[in-house]
Amino acid sequence: MSWTALADGIAAACLVTGALLALVAAIGVLRFPDVLTRMHSATKPQVLGLLLILVGLGFRLRDPGTIGLLAMVALFQLVTSPIASHMVGRASFRAGQVRRDLLVVDELTDLLADERPREGD
């Protein structure tokens, strides 16, 4: 078995697994009941699926310039996705669009109560 055949096999496995994870993320966004669970589904399996697709593309294309570009895409995705999901979750919590009956731990309500201006201030 040659190196190129092995790399193509790894690429195919990564591409299929990444596509399946992206599909699971899309189904989760449609099926989950509230913003926080949808946000979880939109970030975790989708980011892992994208990373697997990028790894699969790297194994398939095998060009150093392309691999560098794919690494930059992965880095930017890993940097922006947690920040964006945090901001969406916090904004939806402040807007009252979170189902509190589904929360196991709620630490943000106390923090938001401390930030609100009190009467007479």
TrEMBL record:
<dbReference type="InterPro" id="IPR005133">
    <property type="entry name" value="PhaG_MnhG_YufB"/>
</dbReference>
<keyword id="KW-0472">Membrane</keyword>
<dbReference type="GO" id="GO:0015385">
    <property type="term" value="F:sodium:proton antiporter activity"/>
</dbReference>
<feature type="transmembrane region" description="Helical">
    <location>
        <begin position="67"/>
        <end position="89"/>
    </location>
</feature>
<protein>
    <submittedName>
        <fullName>Multicomponent Na+:H+ antiporter subunit G</fullName>
    </submittedName>
</protein>
<dbReference type="Pfam" id="PF03334">
    <property type="entry name" value="PhaG_MnhG_YufB"/>
</dbReference>
<feature type="transmembrane region" description="Helical">
    <location>
        <begin position="42"/>
        <end position="61"/>
    </location>
</feature>
<keyword id="KW-1133">Transmembrane helix</keyword>
<keyword id="KW-0812">Transmembrane</keyword>
<feature type="transmembrane region" description="Helical">
    <location>
        <begin position="6"/>
        <end position="30"/>
    </location>
</feature>
<comment type="similarity">
    <text>Belongs to the CPA3 antiporters (TC 2.A.63) subunit G family.</text>
</comment>
